[in-house]
Amino acid sequence: MGERLLVIGGDAGGMAAASQARRLRSDLEIIALEKGSWTSYSACGIPYLIGGEIGAVEDLVARTPQEFRDGFDIDVRLHHEAMAIDLDRREVEVRDVDRGGTSRLGFDQLMIGTGARPRTPDIPGIDHPAVHGVQTLGDAEHLLAHARHIEAKRVVVVGAGYIGLELAEAFTHRGADVTVVERDREVMRTLDPDMGALIREAMCGHGVDVRCGVETLGFEDGVVRTGDGDLRADLVVLGLGVVPNAELAGDAGIELGAGGAIGVDRRQHTTAEGVWAAGDCCESTQLVSNRKLYVALGTVANKQSRVAGTNIGGGYATFPGVVGTAITKICTTEVSRTGLSEREATRDGFEHHAVTIESTTTAGYLADTEQLRIKVVAERTSGRLLGAQIVGGAGAAKRIDVFATALHAGMTVEQMTHLDLAYAPPFSSVWDPILVAARKAAEAVAEGDHMKPGR
Is the domain covering 120-238 a CATH 3.50.50.60 domain? Predict the structure, then answer.
């Protein structure tokens, strides 16, 4: 019998790696285990499914199990859950979800792509059937069916991160009255509070009741208990972020790293021989601070998986890390960030300057121009760009990619002021807001001790 690759997890972390390994090795036997009903789908599209902008769950599936079987000769086994990994015997214990019972599958190489699950607070009533966490298509299908069945009119979202705010908007599209409860002082903790406040104000302007600095205490029938009083709710959605599904690896003796995720090297190899991991279950490296971190993003998962698959297939590839770029749209407001926020820069020991500018997405004299705000964080003295955040109307957020590129290149804000960016009135003012923000940051660095740095 030839060499066998066993894959645990049927979404990006597992299947992208399996597909890449197959491209490099036609002789490899590949078996993929997925405890759910779908493979290779866009979890990022779930809020648009809930909001009705996407018509069916199947529309989010990029490649079906049959397509993997026919096109890649991958033996995809749905409703099969990996229960334990035996590194000594090179076997995985597998449970047949539909029929019950377990069996054991041997492997020569093992690819772990177990993803993540919604973070759930340890408070009374967390297991109430009206409380939903959403990470997989199965979660989305269950939530959507429940919302339709009860004709949910009052929805409480606990947590104001990306998924929480996106789902809050989704339920406004369904005609529900939505309240967001966030214990931090502002929404979107990955932004600095002054930028998060813009998102909160925009959501309130669209009829969402956003309550920051409020602790959620528990759930009962039709009620969410909070430190700010009781809230009536037909449905509760958790938007507290995710945690890695890394217990399977940890229990097998594989070393865990940042955020409790599976520890990996630059080639996506774990501490166990012949065992690889990628996606939302494993750690990454923050390139600005050189700190190990846990980040659950589809872009990262697909890149890591391609690297893992290349190495499994006998090639050589590395994944250097991330700068932490993310983007979303909440109601009509676009939001993006990359690198370090002020809070993160302080945590990582960078003395820094932070500047904010107000501008427009097009030439200011055009009727359809939108307002935007850019915040730039630069290292004191060196002027090295550390991070940026953007909040604004249509056409604002994708500008973050210029800052992300500058971070990868290790540019200073002074160097950024000379970037030859495109200009035409429908796209920007003659001085693009990126250049204006970089120039203001460079001036702050040049003034040095005359301005108080953050620390």
Answer: yes
